[in-house]
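Preliminary data (for renewal application), 4'-deoxy-4'-aminopyridoxal-5'-phosphate complex.
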Amino acid sequence: MFEIEKTRKDFPALSQKVYGKPLIYLDNAATIQKPQTVIDAISEMNSGINGNIHRAVHYLSGLCTERYEAARTSIQTFLHAAKKEEIIFTSGTTAAINLVAASFGERYIQKDDEILISEAEHHSNIVPWQLLCERKGAKIKVLPIHEDGSLAIEELPKLLSPKIKLCCISHISNVLGVVNPIKEIVRIAHAHQVPVLVDGAQGVVHESIDIQDIDCDFYVFSGHKLYGPTGIGILYGKESLLETMPPYQGGGDMIASVSFEGSSYAELPLKFEAGTANFIGAYGLKAAIDYLEQLGLPAIHAHEQMLTNYALQQLTRIDGFQVYGSAAPKSGLISFNIKGLHPTDTAMLLDKMGIAARSGHLCAQPLMQRFGVERMLRFSFALYNTKEEIDEAVAALAKAQQMLS
Ligand code: PMP
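Predicted structure:
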């Protein structure tokens, strides 16, 4: 195990006070705080290691290109991907899903085709598919979840008709926290010749990823949820599939040659990286991965699992507590309601006590409808959270309950 008190000192954001109270940051699923090494990496680049990549012969351009490509290799290793050409830099999860919807959609989706998503998806893994369906005259099909938040995987073979051209599932829902059996889903979908996109925005934070073992066709995530910078994200795609997909956006860096009569495109991965890439963000994400690997992923995941179990145990003692997503395995976050308490009012009171919690529809309105609520409260955990912080947050909820009811 890493030393938690020593580790907390790596995160400058954690030592601040809000409304005169020490910050207890429990909104990590929305965006996570950065360690000093990431801040230093970004700052060093911004302070002078700044030259546009893949273009010039000068020193700074060469150094930035080297760092950008080193970041790509680091992410390849982190995901256990077969090739670095399978790692595409995007601006985040949302951008990566939109890239696949546009490019895979252009090549493979036709009128009356269907795209399968689960009932527990973030709006980012719903709306891009709806836009694609509108363009193509295709349809969305929905894989339901059980009352405990587990996927109704027994329904999957029945839903996988020849019309389904892609299956899009989150690794861990940002509302339920339940770890979906993605390897099993991929196996079933592939048996029906259906490729699978995994939304790993939460999964990559709480699980170790072996992409070749999972065997999914696409895996996407955001840097800012993985202790890295905002504005950087990853699309992993199988080379054989990416090769068949047309470019998404046109511009510099994605071309082989351009003339007014027509253009030819760069090889992977640059084919999907038009324009000046966020090379500073990529280098910052590499610094985040280096930091996590130095602490040790298994120790981090065990700590987050312990926090989730402990928080659930403590929250269950509150009168009227209702959790959404009780199925195991569950890690990293807990969404809930407390009878008689409005989630937003409660989150505002917690805020005044120094506790950052999330409230609202959590970017998953269909899931709110599934559970018959408009809003929830959410606590989400990071490697730097402690049991003491959870005790304080639970005590603050009890106080809010007294004040509001
Ligand atoms: N999918 C899931 C499961 C998420 O939790 C989030 C962020 N809350 C997203 C997609 C979207 O990520 P981003 O806003 O970084 O693109």
